[in-house]
Q: What sequence folds into this?
């Protein structure tokens, strides 16, 4: 997955969550899981989505 596509996934997920559109957000999560399963040699997109909900380290 290109860097631009990865950024687009993350932006779309953040927008869906911000709008309260949880159907769209879960669709993006399932797409990320599918991508990760089909491309085990690439960085995991699901890890990046999960990271959006973690507090930043000081």
A:
């Amino acid at each position: 997955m290109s860097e631009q596509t990865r950024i687009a996934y993350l932006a779309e997920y953040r927008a869906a969550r911000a709008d309260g559109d949880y159907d769209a957000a879960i669709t993006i999560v399932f797409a990320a899981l599918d991508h990760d399963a089909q491309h085990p040699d690439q960085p995991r997109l699901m890890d990046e989505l999960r990271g959006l909900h973690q507090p930043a380290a000081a």
